[in-house]
Request: fold
Amino acid sequence: MPVRKSRERQWKKILNRRIDELIELARQFDPEVEVRRLEPFEEEDAVLELRVDPEKSDEIYDLMLNRTTQIWWDDGFDIVVLVHEKKPVAVKEE
Reply:
């Protein structure tokens, strides 16, 4: 079964490349983005959680939605990206 293992490695390589591409796209719009890779919930190929600045969350959400849809159509990968706003840092009173 070497062909099967080779195909699986190739599949994982392409999936990881697409995940890296999504992370890089998010970092272009918010260099301070916090990224976590989560376990898939059900049948997804990958799940990413992004924590972004509140003023950039809508833009990054739209970018991720468009790109993950394109990846689905092009490669068949079901990558879920959860975009959350970072909590504001509490203001210290002196």
About this structure: The helical segments are 2-29, 57-75.
